[in-house]
Structure formats: C-alpha cells, structure tokens
Amino acid sequence: MRLGGRLQAAIEVLSEIDTRHRPVPEALKDWGLSHRFAGSGDRGAISNLVHDALRMKLSHGFIMDGDQPADLAIATLLRQWDLTPEALAASLDGDRFAPEIPSVEHLDACLARDLSAAPAHVQADIPEWLAASFENAFGEDWIAEAQALTARPPLDLRANTLCTSREQVLEAFADQGAIPTRLAPHGVRIESGKGPERQIAATSEVSFARGWFEIQDEGSQLAAALVGAEPGEDILDYCAGGGGKSLAFAAAMQNQGQINAYDADRRRLAPIVERMRRAGAEIIQIRERPSNLAGLELQMDRVLIDAPCTGTGTWRRRPDAKWRISDKNIADRMADQDKVLDAAAVYVRPGGELAYVTCSLLPEENTDRVKAFLQRHPEFETISLKQRWGSVAADPDAPVPYADQNLGLLLSPRRTGTDGFYFAGFRRKI
Ligand SMILES: C[S@@+](CC[C@H](N)C(=O)[O-])C[C@H]1O[C@@H](n2cnc3c(N)ncnc32)[C@H](O)[C@@H]1O
After folding, report:
1. Mean of the pLDDT values across residues 32-40?
2. In the prediction, which pLDDT does 207 show?
3. Of 201, 172, 199, 170, which Cα lies nearest the Cα of 186?
4. Would you give the DSSP letter of residue 429?
5. Within this chain, do residues 230 and 97 fall inside the same structural domain, yes or no?
6. Triad 27, 47, 178: Cα angle to 5°
7. Does the Cβ of 187 fall within 6 Å of ligand 1?
8. Is the CB of 268 under 6 A from ligand 1?
C-alpha cells in the first residue's frame, strides 16, 4: 500500500473507534481481517498512525480547527511524522486510494497556528478535568510532563541475571541499536521507530525463549528494584498479576528465599507458570486463593502492592485510555487501593517493609492514598527513599524522580525517561 491507502485506512479505524467506541486493538484487527491484502508493514504503519493520532488528539484538533478522524490523521503526518504539506500532497498525488486532503495553502495555515494560544489542557493533550491533578503532581512543569506522555514509548527489556547478563542481551539486539537503560541496572532499551517503522517483536527471538529477558518498562524495573528484595528473604507480591515483579525479585534474590505470588484474580496469575519456567525462577510459590495466604500474617520481610490503578503513567502505550478515563474510574481505583493496602499490610513482619506502587501519575492514587494509609495505620512509618534511590539507580548523575516530603517517588517519561510510576515504602514499627 502507498501512503494514501494507509492514511485512508487510519481514518476508517479512527472513525470506528470514535463512533462505535471500539478498543483500538479490536478496531485495528477488524480492519486487518476485512483487508487481507494488507501486508505486515501496512498494518504496522496504520497502527502507528492511529496510535500517534490518539496521543495528540486535542492539539491536532486545535491546529487543524477540526477533530474529525481525517483532521487527526492528516495532522499526525504533518506534526508527528514530519511530512511537509507539499511532500504529503506529492505523495498522495495520483493515488486513487488516497482520501481528499485540504490544499497545501490551507495546511500551511494550520501549521502556522500558535499552540500556545490554546487552552492549557489542549497544549497538554489531556482531558480538561484532569488538568488540576496534573498540576498538583508536577507544579509548573505539568504541561511539559503531560506533553511527554504523547511520545512513542521505547521497548525496554530486563536482562534476566538468573541465566545471562545485560551485555549478552545488548549483543543479541545490537542490530536494533539496543542500549543500556540509564537508571535500571539490568535494563536494555530499543528506541521506538519513526513514522511507519514497527517495533521489533522481541518475544519471537530465540533469546526470549531461552529466558534471557522479560519485556518490562524501565520504570517497572526500577519500582521492583526499589522494593529492595534480598537473597534469603520472604516476600509477598500481593497483586502479582502476570508476575512481572515476582520474576524481577527472583533474579535480585538469586533464587534464594521465597516469593509468594498472589492476585485476587487467579486467571491473571496463570501466565506466571510459563514465565517462571522460561526464566529459571525457582522460588516463586503461586498462591491462587486468599486461603493460601493463611499463616503468612506478620511473617513477610517485604510485601509489594503493585496496585490496581488508572494507568495514567502508561498513556504513551495506550493513548486511547487517556480519552476513556472518568471520575468514577479514579474513585473506584482509590477504593481498591485503600482496600489492598489494608489487606496486604497484615502480612508484614515487625521491622519488615511494605511497598506501594502504581503506574499512575495522579496524586489521588499516590500521595493521597499514602497519607490516608499512614493515618489508618500508625504502626507503619515511611522509609527514606533518597537512600533507597541511591542504592538502585545505576547512574548517580541521571535525573532523579519527583519526591514529595518522603511520601513517595514519582517517575515520568519527561523526568526519568520511563513510564509514569509511583513508589512509596513503609516499615512496620511493631
Ligand atoms: C498493576 S496490576 C499487577 C501487575 C503485576 N504486578 C506485574 O508486574 O506484572 C494490578 C493487579 O492487582 C490485582 N488486584 C486488584 N484488586 C486486588 C485485590 N483486592 N487483592 C489482590 N489483587 C488485586 C489485579 O487483578 C491486577 O492483576
């Protein structure tokens, strides 16, 4: 397919998402099923166009003075794929599958519009009602922080030190330009491609089948490292999901000690079985049911709560989530977070630690929850995060996360080059 056909396809998929509220992966899949002639390069390019358009939906709408799917897709090519209006018009010329586009003069005039005249949330490309939360989280940097969430994310891998080294993983992906992550000591980064370029399918590699790495954002790797798991300890991963953090603990603990992996939804735990086998992680005990946790009360050296959250820190990966989030979502997640904090805290031994992690940037889910927890649980105190960060970050000169009076660390794409993650740590006094 030429650019015109890809542009037309992206417009159709964006319309489907907009009018029928379809999830992006489903809308893209359906388009692929009804256009079987499209090759994998075409599908990748169309997917990139759709995701990029959603990342900057509001500012594209402002610049184009219209937010129809065609406006968004055309603006994506001009503002994110760096095509000039002339180059775009030339590449669509004579392409019978291409949509009609405005004249070069009109597009030049659109690009000349001054985005700084737009309302702040439009410049930031976030829903208006969330602006106050972003400002609370980041102060005067909030627009720049929100704008950094509109970029394509890199692909981050965590080298599994149970069976290989970061150097070997770097070598395996040397052709793709892999580099060491700046902060996470075992991370490997492959930067995102530009325009139609697709991200590599790292999980199709032999090195993946051999257990050399897991796909894990650098922010998630850092959150796991901040927990501070050491060989020989007893750990509870209370919201273990597919086990991303449990696997990181097993490597940090050199397969010595015990990790109890629990999740309220036991179907989410199922992938751990295969992942443990592949990674050679031998110390993970899967706890499928609440009753399997009996007897662990006051016994754990460390408990991690990787809490259910709105995922605002991962908007680079799921840009449609940015336009779906509601007040009710946030309120529901806050209630879940208080519930898991109370439920998981009972397993921490005196002197042991409780870690609270979200992949959200909203203070409502982060510092507010921590303050409320400390009020309900005077038997816990916060731990010094400055020291902990120093022991985790590979590069002491690298940017540090936001820290609010020792009430947690906040990582973000702009500040730390990671997904947005929040980490807070507590110690049980008695
Ligand atoms: C952010 S995800 C966990 C991701 C996982 N730790 C990882 O690193 O791959 C949050 C998890 O919390 C679980 N969850 C939600 N409510 C819970 C509860 N009350 N008790 C335990 N787990 C809960 C969800 O099923 C979900 O798997």
Report:
1. 92
2. 97
3. 170
4. -
5. no
6. 140
7. no
8. yes
CA atoms within 13 A on the CB side of 69: 17
Query: What ipTM score was computed for the predicted complex, to two decimals?
Result: 0.99
Report the domain count for the chain: 2
What is the chain's mean pLDDT, rounded?
97
Q: Is 219 in the pocket of ligand 1 (CB under 6 A)?
A: no
pTM to 2 decimals? 0.96
In a domain, 169, yes or no: no
> Is the distance from the beta carbon of residue 263 to the nearest atom of ligand 1 less than 6 Å?
yes
Q: Which atom of ligand 1 is nearest to the CA of 242?
A: 9
Domain that includes residue 233, residue range: 218-428
Task: Report the residue among 156, 237, 263 best suited for mutation to probe ligand 1: largest number of ligand atoms under 8 A from its CB.
Answer: 263
- How far is it, in rounded angstroms, from Cα 369 to Cα 185? 29
Residues whose CB falls within 8 Å of the CB of residue 138, separated by 6 or more in sequence, listed in order: 145, 361, 402, 412
Known binding positions for S-adenosyl-L-methionine: 263, 306
Distance 309 CA to ligand 1 centre (A): 9
Is residue 161 included in any domain, yes or no? no
* One domain for residues 260 and 395: yes
Q: Is the CB of 239 under 6 A from ligand 1?
A: yes
Three-state DSSP state, 234: strand
Which one of 118, 149, 172 terminates a domain?
118
pLDDT band at 152 (very low <50, low <70, confident <90, very high): very high
Q: What is the number of the ligand 1 atom nearest to the C-alpha of 307?
A: 10
What are residue 79's phi and psi, to 5 degrees?
-95, -25
Q: Is the pLDDT of residue 430 over 90?
A: no
Rg from Cα positions in the chain: 23
> So which residues are the catalytic ones?
359
State phi, psi for 287 to the nearest 5 degrees.
-110, 100
Domain boundary among 83, 102, 118: 118
Q: How far is the CA of 423 from the centre of ligand 1 (A)?
A: 15
